[in-house]
Specification:
Layout: E1 3-7, E2 28-30, H1 50-63, E3 69-74, H2 77-87, E4 92-98, H3 109-112, H4 114-124, E5 131-132, H5 148-155, E6 161-162, H6 164-167, E7 182-187, E8 210-214, H7 220-223, H8 225-233
Parallel strand pairs: 1-2, 1-3, 3-4, 4-7, 7-8
Antiparallel strand pairs: 5-6
Domain AB hydrolase-1: 4-229
Keywords: Hydrolase
GO molecular function: hydrolase activity
């Protein structure tokens, strides 16, 4: 049995993984909601940032005494899992960047992705100064979700994003974190604005980078849960990548 810890991205909550969890039967699966999202929106404040969210993950792993964790971060959560792994690298078996931001030490979300910079500007110009509302729907849908029923479900889980999560720098200064194997899953139909930097040929541990593709939009856990699960299961001991 493997342990999967699935971390949602900006504006979402842990319910984003509801279609994936049953497909990972036989494995332990945790889908926490980060501070300030979903049923914790009452905790959203100017003090909530990236380090709040990485602390959420570290605290959960230690409280549950999780080991050999397959730590999956979607979108913004690429920074969250990186910062968390930097603190407890001995607990992490794999880092999975799911159509995610992949930072280097000292970078913020606004450094990694142009869309995040625009979100910061919107928040600073708003009345609150620290909240970023979800982006509006377009004729192409929202986060790559197009089906009307899927869109209706997606809307129920979206809430404001704390601007601090986009402005705080990730910490990747622990040499041990470089030894953790990494996998990248790219959604090839992600909407404009989710452009990612090219993945280098070699991981920090010296092994070739692993890049898999899904022909779907950004929120693949909603649009293609079966296909996503098939890829995640390739990371279990009985199905090495």
């Amino acid at each position: 049995m493997s342990t999967f810890l699935l971390v949602h991205g900006a504006w979402h909550c842990g319910r984003a993984w509801d279609r994936v969890v049953p497909l990972l039967r036989g494995h332990r699966v945790l889908t926490p909601t980060l501070t300030g999202y979903g049923d914790t929106t009452h905790l959203l404040s100017p003090d909530v940032g990236l380090h709040t969210h990485s602390a959420d993950i570290v605290r959960l792993i230690l409280a549950e005494d999780l080991r050999d964790v397959v730590l999956v971060g979607h979108s913004y959560a690429g920074l969250v899992i990186s910062d968390a792994a930097n603190q407890i690298p001995d607990r992490i078996a794999q880092l999975v960047y799911l159509d995610a931001m992949v930072p280097v030490d000292g970078e913020t979300a606004a450094d990694v992705m142009p869309q995040a910079r625009k979100a910061v500007e919107r928040a600073l110009d708003s009345d609150s100064g620290f909240r970023v509302p979800p982006p509006p729907e377009t004729p192409e849908g929202l986060f790559g979700v197009i089906d009307p029923a899927d869109l209706a479900w997606l809307r129920t889980m979206l809430s404001d994003q704390p601007v601090g999560a986009l402005r705080e720098p990730v910490r990747l200064d622990n040499p041990a974190v470089r030894r953790i194997p990494r996998v990248h899953i790219h959604c090839t139909d992600a909407p404009e604005g989710f452009a990612r930097r090219p993945v280098p040929a070699v991981q920090p541990n010296g092994n070739p980078e692993v890049v898999w593709e899904l022909p779907t939009g950004h929120d693949c856990m909603i649009t293609t849960p079966h296909e996503l699960t098939d890829l995640l299961l390739r990371l279990t001991p009985e199905n090495p990548n």
